[in-house]
Amino acid sequence: MKKIEYTEHLKIRIQLRHILKDLPKEIYLTADERYYDSSTQHRIALKKTEYMGKNRDMIICYEEVEDRVEIITIHPLKAYQKMQRIESGRWEKI
After folding, report:
1. Cα–Cα distance between 4 and 63 in angstroms, integer?
2. Domain tally, the chain
3. Cα(36)–Cα(76) distance, rounded to whole angstroms?
4. N or C, fewer C-beta in 10 Å, the chain?
C-alpha cells in the first residue's frame, strides 16, 4: 500500500473546517466514488459522511506519486456541485 501524506494546505483546512484528522485518509481508502478533475488535473475521492451534524458528500483532492499519495485538500460538496461538475465534463468517473 502506498504511503498517505497530508500537504500543509490540507493540514490547515482540517483545522479551519474542524475536520477529524483521520477523515481524509478514510475517504481515500473507502471512497464511494472517484473522479478525475480536468480543471485541476487532480483525482477526486468522494464519500458521504457526517460533517457539522449533517450527512454530507465530502471530497478530497489528491495526487498519486510513485510510492505515495498526497492528499491536497478536503471540503464538503454542496448538493448541486457534483452533478454540475459531471454534466459539464469537468469530472470524469475513474
Report:
1. 10
2. 1
3. 17
4. N
Considering the entire predicted model, what is its pTM? Answer: 0.93
**Position of cell 457534483?**
82
pLDDT tens digits, one per residue of 7-64:
999 999 999 999 999 999 999 999 999 999 999 999 999 999 999 899 999 999 999 9
Give every CB contact of residue 22 below 8 A, 6+ residues apart in sequence.
none
CATH number at residue 41: 3.30.2310
Domain residues for the domain of 28 are 3-93
For residues 19 and 51, the answer to whether their CB atoms sit within 8 Å is: yes
Q: Is 39 exposed, middle or buried (0-12, 13-18, 19+ CB in 10 A)?
A: exposed
Site of grid cell 483525482? 43
